[in-house]
């Protein structure tokens, strides 16, 4: 299993207690949180580049994240134990339902009020998701135009920002009670994002929100890893609203599964290693034991 690691570019200092890493499969975008023995979290410097614009690159914004002097806030803190259920499975497909709101940094990206992908809160102004999720919305737009035989909103399948929203504090996608729905101002897709038949490389995108997030216990930012930080052999949780069975429907409830993060050298020797070896710097490898 491979996906996109954020350790090369997401690097505010001092946030090491809990780290969110988006993990991408063909069917869905899910996330990995390293499990920490401490529930207190860490103090970090807020990462919100006030001067960032839609023309800035992801690298420029991340540099701004690291350099920005802002007020301190707490990240990676959940009031609930994500491993409260001792029967957490090791499979996303058919995995176990997560404890509601135990992953307060988990967000849901929607288009026309339909679930598209998982996303992660990294500041009160930015959400991290996968680049292919942005492309999926463009494909959806083209299908709408083809169905109605007209350019209903935008030409050539371009995404209509007015129909994009991010839902915060959500567990059940069919019940948005106590959630916050935020509009989107712009997207920034990784400039080296590439797609082939097997996987995406540099599958990252930043979403700038139309308004700032107001943090409450069940809506919180995740901690970002320091540059070069290693997670080999650590346990993580993959979470998301992905398919409940192979080629099946997506889950209505947030689900989770436990996996071990593998060292690059081990991953390259595995069955899927040839794909990982093509771009190890932009992927993370995890395994279910």
Automatic annotation (TrEMBL):
Molecular-function annotations in GO: serine-type endopeptidase activity
Domain spans labelled Peptidase S1: 92-289
GO biological process, one term: proteolysis
UniProt entry keywords in alphabetical sequence: Disulfide bond
InterPro entries reported for this sequence: Peptidase_S1_PA, Peptidase_S1_PA_chymotrypsin, Ser/Thr_Proteases_Immune/Dev, Trypsin_dom, TRYPSIN_HIS
Family annotation (PROSITE patterns): TRYPSIN_DOM (PS50240), TRYPSIN_HIS (PS00134)
CDD domains the UniProt entry points to: Tryp_SPc (cd00190)
Superkingdom: Eukaryota
Pfam families: Trypsin
Family affiliation: Belongs to the peptidase S1 family. CLIP subfamily.
Protein name: Peptidase S1 domain-containing protein
Organism (species): Cuerna arida
């Amino acid at each position: 299993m491979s996906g996109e690691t954020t350790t090369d570019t997401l690097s505010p200092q001092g946030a090491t207690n809990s780290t969110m890493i988006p993990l991408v499969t063909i069917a869905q975008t899910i996330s990995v949180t390293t499990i920490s023995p401490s529930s207190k979290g860490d103090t970090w410097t807020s990462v919100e580049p006030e001067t960032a614009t839609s023309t800035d690159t992801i690298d420029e914004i991340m540099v701004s994240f690291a350099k920005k002097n802002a007020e301190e806030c707490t990240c990676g803190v959940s009031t609930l134990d994500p491993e409260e259920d001792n029967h957490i499975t090791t499979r996303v497909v058919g995995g176990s339902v997560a404890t509601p709101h135990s992953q307060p940094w988990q967000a849901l990206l929607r288009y026309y009020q339909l679930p598209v992908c998982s996303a992660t809160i990294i500041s009160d102004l930015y959400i991290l998701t996968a680049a292919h999720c942005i492309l999926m919305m463009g494909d959806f737009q083209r299908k709408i135009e083809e169905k109605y035989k007209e350019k209903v909103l935008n030409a050539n399948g371009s995404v209509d920002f007015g129909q994009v929203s991010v839902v915060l504090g959500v567990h059940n996608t069919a019940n948005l009670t106590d959630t916050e729905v935020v509009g989107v101002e712009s997207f920034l897709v990784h400039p080296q994002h590439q797609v082939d038949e097997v996987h995406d490389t540099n599958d990252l995108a930043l979403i700038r929100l139309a308004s700032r997030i107001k943090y409450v216990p069940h809506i919180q930012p995740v901690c970002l890893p320091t540059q070069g930080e290693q997670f080999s052999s650590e346990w993580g949780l993959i979470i998301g609203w992905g398919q409940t069975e192979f080629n099946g429907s997506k889950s209505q409830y947030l689900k989770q599964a436990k996996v071990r993060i593998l060292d690059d050298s081990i991953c390259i020797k595995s069955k899927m290693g040839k794909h990982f070896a093509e771009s190890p710097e932009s992927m993370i490898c995890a395994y279910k034991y």
